[in-house]
Write a structure and sequence with these properties.
By secondary structure, the protein is mostly helical. The chain has two domains: about 220 residues, Citrate Synthase, domain 1 (Orthogonal Bundle), CATH 1.10.580.10; about 100 residues, Cytochrome P450-Terp, domain 2 (Cytochrome p450-Terp, domain 2, Orthogonal Bundle), CATH 1.10.230. A three-stranded antiparallel sheet has the order 1-2-3. A hairpin with a 4-residue loop joins strand 1 and strand 2. Helix 9 packs antiparallel against helix 10. The longest helix is centred in the middle third of the chain and has 26 residues. The protein is globular, with a radius of gyration of 22 Å.
Length: about 375
């Protein structure tokens, strides 16, 4: 009998392992740089719109005006979800997790898209991508209304995704500055190279499963607390701390107990996450407008202490938590909002996978025993 041996070849979590070639996005963790199709995230956040970024991720270039107009028209024509889907959602338990609702509902939407079902050619895949990108916000906000016992708000066919999301969530038109902040948040979360959920969508697409199946898998991966669920846990942490005066003692105890400080540190970035740069500004901005600065001030105190004590920086989740909280968004809707944005990146990667497909089938380094012989059950 040979015994198991310690593995030295496999890299835990596949850190640093290149698994695919892609032109969609790139993360330079050493310098804190994020690009989409060659464009720096700061440039896009400053000047672009989420719809322009969607076009960029899917097509490799920014759109001309007529191309953007056409994409906007197609997205807006597909905002509405079938009445059967709304009826289905009304049968779900009211305490169901929003990400579980999103997973089930998006999978069910595939039944009502006969045109693209089980098709992976680019023309049909793009059509499916448009429908899903348009309908994610409708599904997320419909569930919020349903579980609160309110009427579902129909989307506005003349508004962009950011405006529509906030309108359908609240039942009233949002203010322009809120829409701008939310639109940039969608840009910031749109893609992040081969993160866990994006890699999942590519693995599924590599089997030539359709867009609905691939995206459903991405939702499942995003739901995990170490991926999309982190921003919710950041806000839970802030609520637990309670006040600026409690930060230092709470943090000292948490570090002594070796607790993970949510929203601090990143698997790739060794410096500040460039998305956090924008979200820090938004957290302060919405705090000032609401006259409630304590969440921002607490976050700043934690950020400063973690950098001094551990040399760690905030990631995208850290300041998005307080930003969304002060916009009145329920905590368990933070991750679905992540999905409302990331559907653009997921579908971009799915389209890229289909365009030059090779089944993704890595190997595992076997570390178990060998040479064992079967023994009858009476002799074990």
């Amino acid at each position: 009998m040979t015994t198991a041996k310690e593995s030295t070849a496999a890299t835990a979590g596949l850190r640093g392992v290149v698994a695919a070639q892609s032109s969609i996005g790139d993360v330079n963790g050493e310098e804190g740089i994020l690009i989409y199709q060659g464009y720096d995230i700061h440039d896009l956040a400053e000047h672009s719109t989420f719809e322009e970024v969607i076009y960029l991720l899917w097509n490799g270039r920014l759109p001309k005006q007529e191309e953007l107009d056409e994409l906007n028209s197609q997205i807006r024509a597909n905002y509405a979800i079938p009445s059967e889907i709304v009826d289905l959602m009304k049968t779900f338990p009211k305490d169901a997790e929003p990400m579980d609702v999103l997973r089930t509902t998006i999978s069910a939407l595939g039944f009502y898209d006969k045109e693209t079902a089980h098709k992976t050619d680019r023309e049909n895949a793009v059509k499916a991508a448009i429908k899903l990108t348009a309908q994610f916000p409708t599904v997320v906000t419909a569930w919020e209304r349903i579980r609160e016992g309110k009427e579902v708000v129909a989307p506005l066919a003349d508004q962009n995704i950011a405006t529509n999301f906030l309108y359908m969530l609240r039942g009233e038109m949002p203010e322009a500055d809120e829409v701008k902040i939310f639109d940039i948040c969608l840009i910031l979360h749109a893609d992040h190279e081969l993160n866990a959920s994006t890699f999942t969508t590519r693995v599924i697409a590599g089997t030539l499963a359709d867009v609905y199946g691939s995206v459903t898998g991405g939702i499942c991966a995003l739901a995990g607390p170490l991926h999309g669920g982190a921003n919710t846990n950041v806000m839970k942490m802030l609520l637990e701390i309670g006040s600026l005066e409690n930060v230092d003692s709470w943090l000292d105890k948490a570090l002594e107990e070796k607790r993970k400080i949510m929203g601090i540190g990143h698997a790739v970035y060794k410096t500040e996450d460039p998305r956090a740069t924008w979200l820090r500004k938004f957290s302060k901005q919405v705090g000032e407008k609401a006259g409630e600065m304590k969440w921002f001030e607490m976050s700043q105190r934690i950020e400063k202490a973690m950098h001094e004590k551990k040399g760690m920086f905030p990631n995208v989740d850290f300041y998005s938590a307080s930003t969304y909280y002060l916009m009145g968004i329920p905590l368990d809707q933070y991750t679905p909002i992540f999905a409302v944005s990331r559907i653009s990146g997921w579908t971009g990667h799915i389209l890229e996978q289909y365009s030059n497909n090779k089944l993704i089938r890595p190997r595992a380094e076997y570390i178990g025993e060998r040479g064992l012989k079967y023994a009858p059950i009476s002799e074990r």
